[in-house]
Amino acid sequence: MQTTPFIGELMGSLVLLLLGDGVVANVVLKKTKGENGGWIVITTGWAFAVVMGVFTANAFGSPDAHINPAVTLGFAVLHNDYSQVLSYITAQMIGSFLGAVLVWLYYLPHWKATPDPGDKLACFATSPAIRSNGPNFLSEVLATWMLIVGIVAISQAGAIPESGAIPSGLGPYLVGLLVWSIGLSLGGSTGYAINPARDLGPRLAHAVLPIPDKGGSDWGYAWIPVVAPMVGAALAALMLLVFAFE
Q1: Which terminus of the chain is more exposed, N or C, with fewer CB under 10 A?
Q2: Could you report the per-residue pLDDT of 61-92, keeping only the tens digit for each?
Q3: What span, in angstroms and rounded, lies between the C-alpha atoms of 197 and 182?
């Protein structure tokens, strides 16, 4: 099969969720080797997941390696080019769903060993520490705003003569550091979805998979980690346009 941007976004998103939701499962589920590893482990695992997701997307045919509908929308607004939006977001959703299914398979014996339905859902989707729609929405908007501004800043760094060009292959690691920083600093309120596919795809997987005593998928909250990151990305892109970033 020939590599294409669609396949690249799908495979990159699959790897992102396999490793990202995988670290949550390792920390949250009972009787794992990483049980109770804590927030540092989760944010570090997600940062590495982003790095490997970007490299995988590149390898399978996506030079953009967005692996996030909010990033896709942000760059579409920034460049006034919406030609890839539908294709990329579709691939990202499929890949995220499949990545979550693989996490379920990988930790198969541990779902029954974990009594709390909330812990099981946490391995797939985000939830707020304190449920309040307005502040929760704002948290996701601001965290995603920071993601887009940070990615653009990293991509522009080589264009500033005194800063020097970023060596080839370093970009994904810097984006991973950015996501790590966002998780450590801005992840405490909502779990920093900052990626609609990262939340919605796995939430759908949670809803359909035969997980014992899993409880509901919290669809009443699900719109926030989908809509708010898209709003944050668009706002970041519009702000960047004011400063002539293209």
Answers
A1: N
A2: 999 999 999 999 999 999 999 999 999 999 99
A3: 18
